[in-house]
Amino acid sequence: MHGESARSPVLNELYDQFLADEDAAAFVHRVSQRYQPSTIERLVSHSSRMVRRAAVLALGYLGDYEVNACLGKALTDADRGVRLLAENGIRSVWCRLGTEEHRREITAVVHLNGSKQFEEARGRASDLIADAPWFAEAWNQRAIANYCTDRYRESIDDCRQALEINPYHFGAAAGMGQCYLKLGEQASALEAFRRALKLNPGLEGVRANVVYLQRLLKRS
User: Are 173 and 138 contained in the same domain?
Assistant: First the structure.
């Protein structure tokens, strides 16, 4: 049961204004003037789905890694809008950790992977891991680079480490499943995909893989 409030919070009004003007910068500014992230976190369990959407959107913009668990739980909210906003927000939060240098470096690694410069991404992710082994997204980004250079076992190890540090990292769980598929280990792939889907029920591609593997393994 979601927590109740005697009246609609101001955050709801700010969200309505955002929906009307679609000005994200203005929304962030207005919310930051009225709320601390800890207060917004409490509103993620509000009875109103619109308030929960507003809170999750605000945390995605304003929260640091401390809101990871809050957004992780919102991935399974009853409202699809909340779930989608939580998924977008949590991906950003995963990179908001450590020093400014750490944050710049993870941004660079993400860009390198996105540009298919996988060897350089792998090297820089390794350097970041050496300096900040608690940075789950660094392990995940190296896992991506390893996967894209056919280093599937190494990628699995990196995904496992990312999940050990950040148990809400559905991307690492899904990535592990893809690696096991490449290695022809269907049962392990199914287990990893199920874990990813439990964390984030909105992963339709992962859901399709679960259905396919369940049928495949049932026939074998």
Answer: yes
pLDDT in tens, 37-63: 889 999 999 999 999 999 999 999 999
- Residues 6+ away with beta carbon under 8 Å from 21: none
The residue out of 61, 93, 125 marking a domain boundary is 93
Whether residue 29 is found in the same domain as residue 112? no
**96-134 per-position pLDDT tens digit:** 999 999 999 999 999 999 999 999 999 999 999 999 999
Helix or strand run (H / E) with residue 189: helix 186-199
Three-point CA angle 159, 110, 148, nearest 5°: 55
> What pTM does this model have?
0.91
Closest of 115, 94, 104, 64 to residue 167, by C-alpha? 94
Q: Is residue 2 in some structural domain?
A: no
Quote the CA–CA distance of 186 and 89 in Å, as a whole number: 31
* In a domain? residue 3: no
